[in-house]
Description:
- The protein is of the alpha+beta class and 449 residues long.
- It has helices spanning 2-12, 14-34, 41-54, 56-74, 85-128, 146-151, 163-169, 175-186, 230-266, 271-294, 302-310, 330-350, 397-409; strands at 131-137, 141-144, 193-199, 205-211, 217-218, 221-228, 300-301, 319-322, 327-328, 359-367, 376-384, 412-418, 423-429, 434-436.
- It has three domains: 2-127, no CATH class; 129-228, Beta-Lactamase, CATH 3.30.450; 269-436, 2-Layer Sandwich (Heat Shock Protein 90).
- The chain is built from 13 helices and 14 strands.
- β12 and β13 form a beta hairpin.
Amino acid sequence: xxxxxxxxxxxxxxxxxxxxxxxxxxxxxxxxxxxxxxxxxxxxxxxxxxxxxxxxxxxxxxxxxxxxxxxxxxxxxxxxxxxxxxxxxxxxxxxxxxxxxxxxxxxxxxxxxxxxxxxxxxxxxxxxxxxxxxxxxxxxxxxxxxxxxxxxxxxxxxxxxxxxxxxxxxxxxxxxxxxxxxxxxxxxxxxxxxxxxxxxxxxxxxxxxxxxxxxxxxxxxxxxxxxxxxxxxxxxxxxxxxxxxxxxxxxxxxxxxxxxxxxxxxxxxxxxxxxxxxxxxxxxxxxxxxxxxxxxxxxxxxxxxxxxxxxxxxxxxxxxxxxxxxxxxxxxxxxxxxxxxxxxxxxxxxxxxxxxxxxxxxxxxxxxxxxxxxxxxxxxxxxxxxxxxxxxxxxxxxxxxxxxxxxxxxxxxxxxxxxxxxxxxxxxxxxxxxxxxxxxxxxxxxxxx
Length: 449
């Protein structure tokens, strides 16, 4: 309203208020002098107007001007500054009325200011909470405030639909539930809360949580609050999907641990050896699992995975890790992490890491095999500076992981070579195990451990 716009301006610019006060008092005095008016009503009106619109200071200023004008022009004897008993009585009555006006209107202005602050805070709270107020007057009149209109994709100037038209916006799956709530409301049996979906005119599906307090009812009209809970519903859906994914991952993890324990038991002769190997392998799985948790089960960079698995075995100056950026899917992280752990454990016992001069080089690159349209990653583990590798006549669990288990899980192939310089393991995997594959083939050295 224009008053809401004018009040702050007049109250901020007191000089305008004083000018208006002077003009109104002069006008009131002129009206009293030249019109058939026998009371001081025009001057009282001037004091009232300026106090209400501009505050108590301008009200006191207007009252003072009116007091001087009344003393000079209207108190007996007229046009004199003489203070007779009649003049004192008139001026006292005038001053009392003006004081009452200024005090009352100042209190009213303060109450209006508090109400305006509360209204602004309420509006801000409703906007932040995505709340909107509505009013339904049966049979068909439906009104929403601007916040509610914004929730439904409407502008303030848009005409709001009738109840029958709004019903057509309700999602078909929620229509029966909504119709039941409307029917109960018509029978004076309000539904305190309900949630349903609406399809807005711009085609978006929004979730609304509607509150209908019984205490806010006036005649046949029903009042309530609606809240846009679309974000909450989407988060709940993501949480449900995440919980299902976590359950699936946990089952897979149990299967991996069960296979690990079973295969280790087959190939271990002593109880102590079985305990040590199972413990170290489960710790390796936990390292991969921590990386997946930090990556929100989306994926883990290959360089980070290799670094993490080598950290307990290899210092920075003895292990080189180099290759382009590649992000592995969760399943690939678990099995490749097992493979790196088995290689590092074997190297620490029998290979390059068992002597001070030994080194490990882990490198990978992208390329295309003959006839393949998709890029393939080739990863190599090469040991040097250690004792010559010995080919065992008995295939242990580590070798099973390197030649069968890990390559199969990563949809690729794995080969072990017992070179004179040290053990070499080569793994070729397809793009299917990666979340991200770079377009270029240029290698870069991964960050050191």
